[in-house]
Structures are given as C-alpha cells and as structure tokens.
Specification:
Radius of gyration: 17 Å
CATH class: Alpha Beta
Strand order of the largest sheet: 4-3-5-2-1-6-10-11-9
Largest sheet: 9 strands, mixed
Oligomer: single chain
Shape: globular
CATH superfamily: Acetylglutamate kinase-like
Helix content: 25-40%
Order of helices and strands: EHHEHHEEHEHEEEEHHEHE
Distance between the termini: 24 Å
Number of helices: 9
Number of domains: 1
Length: about 240
C-alpha cells in the first residue's frame, strides 16, 4: 500500500536543452537533476516521463515528408537518448534510478512493467519512463498521463519553459493573464493549448490533478509536489 506521496513529472525534450536550440545542455541537466533530488529528499516518490523534441520532433517531420509511424518511432528513440543522459545526471548527484522503456532495449534499460515500476519507487528509486507509450500517433504528454495513472501517482507535473497556462500566448500578447486554476472542461471549452485532446480526456477520466510550472522558477516543482499554489492547477 502506498504510504508516501507519489508524483509523475513530465519533462519536455526542450527542457534538457536549456538555453540551446537543440541537443542536451549538461550544465542545465545537472541543475534539473538537483531539483529532482530536492523533491526526492522531501520524501516524495518520483516517476519521470521525458520527451525528445530537443533531438527529433516526429510530428514536424511527418508533416513534411516522412511516414508518421516512422517519424514517431524515431521520436521515441530520441526520448531514450534523453533518458540515458538524464539518468547519468541524476546518478551524478546521488539519486538511484531505473530507466524503463516502452520499447524493448535491454542493453539500455528495463522493459516498462507497471508493477516493477511501482516497486522501484517504493524502494526509493526514481523511475525514468522513455519511448512514450511504445506506439506511434501518441504524444509523450499522453504517455505522461498514462504512466501517472498506471503508477498510482497523486498528480502529474508538467515542467515547461513558461510559468503556467495563460489565456493567450504570453510571447505574443502583453496583456496575457496567467490562469492559476481551471478544469479540464474549461481547457476544452476555451481551447487552451495545454495539451492534445487525447490526454485531456484520459486525465479527466482518471481524475488526475495536473500542475503546469516553470523549469526556471526556483523550487517551483517541489512546491507543486507539496501542494503549494504555484503555476497552474488543472483538475
């Protein structure tokens, strides 16, 4: 029986790129690893889902010339590369981890199995989930919700380059307002571009609490894990 709080943190591939346009920034990856360790030190069990957009963005490529399935599988492999890199960053700061892949790559990590993932977290290991759902046509955001529900997490935190959800694009409009709390129904009604409709439906059906916070705000992810008011909360 779960006795400690358990969260899933969704990190986009771009998060590992830091201020770079692509690739992995080792300095920022280590800073992010320290942020994750801070959460674990607070007694919270952690699962991570990583994106791969800093290396390869399947949807963008498939829109131009490549078959969508082929492009999506390449995107899954990009998340595996990010997983290996971030696993190294986490272990360099003293975290014990397990890399679990939806694709069978035994030389790199374990095959994802729900019960094994839960057991790893119960033993104090950070579970890093890569390769999305293992199927094309599903985003890593959808994989994040799916893993959060499977692993019995109390909430999912989406750590991004912005500090929450706005009523309009804050990069384009100076009068954009941060939405501190909303519902999945309202997200759909207002067409807020937080996520695709597949995982909105999945999160709403599973009664999952979602928090959107900034990667760059000190302790923001920890505060979200502890239920403090930060970023945007969707429920």
């Amino acid at each position: 029986m779960k006795t400690q709080p358990r969260v899933l943190i969704k990190l986009s591939g771009e998060a590992l790129a830091g201020d770079k346009d692509h690739g992995i920034d080792p300095v920022f990856a280590k800073k992010l690893a320290l942020d994750i360790k801070e959460i674990q030190d607070a007694g919270i069990e952690i699962a991570l889902v990583l994106g791969g957009g800093n290396i390869f963005r399947g949807i963008a490529v498939s829109a131009q010339w490549m078959d969508r399935s082929a492009a999506d599988y390449m995107g899954m492999l990009a998340t595996v590369m990010n997983g290996v890199a971030f696993q190294d960053a986490l272990e360099s700061v003293g975290c014990e981890t397990r890399l679990m892949s939806a694709l069978d790559i035994p030389e790199v990590g374990e095959k994802y199995i729900k019960r094994r993932g839960i057991r790893h977290m119960e033993k104090g290991r950070i579970v890093i989930c890569v390769a999305g759902t293992g199927n094309p046509f599903f985003t890593t955001d959808t994989a994040g919700v799916l893993r959060a529900l499977e692993l019995d997490c109390t909430m999912m935190i989406k750590a991004t380059k912005v500090d929450g959800v706005y009523d309009k694009d804050p990069k384009k409009f100076d009068d954009a307002n941060l939405i501190s709390e909303t519902s999945y129904s309202q997200v759909l009604q207002d067409n807020l571009r937080v996520m695709d409709q597949t995982w909105i439906a999945l999160a709403r059906e599973g009664k999952l609490i979602l928090k959107v916070v900034s990667l760059y705000t000190p302790h923001a992810i920890l505060k979200a894990c502890q239920g403090e008011k930060v970023g945007t909360t969707i429920s």
